[in-house]
Design brief:
By secondary structure, the chain is α+β, with helices and mostly antiparallel strands. Helices cover about 35% and strands about 30% of the residues.
Length: about 130
């Protein structure tokens, strides 16, 4: 039996669990993918200019995924956005509005440790949530 509540977008239990998890983590790496280097550069600049990430690294990846009932394989650009947990909701809003995909990826990974001076720079560079 799972102890994780059924995850629906508006499930209050899931929202509360997410809030508790985010309160314990101050810094995160948020990831998304897009279809071209030009779009990756444009989106990275928008995210940093909006104060939603201190740094965005882009790299070419090959993604294999299920879509429309078939296994797909496509080259993509991965964006790794170093930010604060408090900025994730703003980042989500920006991606929902500006991402070119029907189903944009947003995966948020906690940073459990790091260089104190680097993490301080991330905090200072990201606009308050």
């Amino acid at each position: 039996m799972s102890t994780v509540p059924d995850e629906t977008p508006h499930d209050p239990a899931v929202a509360q669990q997410r809030t508790v998890q985010q309160s314990a983590v101050k810094h995160v790496v948020a990831q998304t993918t897009v279809d071209s280097a030009a779009r990756a550069d444009e989106l990275a600049r928008r995210v940093v200019a909006a104060g939603l990430a201190a740094c965005v690294q882009t790299s070419e990846v090959r993604s294999v995924f299920a879509w429309d009932g078939a296994v797909q394989q496509e080259p993509e650009q991965l964006l790794a956005m170093k930010t604060t947990a408090a900025a994730v909701d703003g980042l989500r809003t920006l991606l929902e509005a500006e991402h070119p995909y029907d189903e944009p990826e947003l995966v948020v990974l906690p940073i459990v440790d790091g260089s104190p001076s680097y993490l301080a720079w991330v905090t200072e560079s990201v606009a308050p949530g």
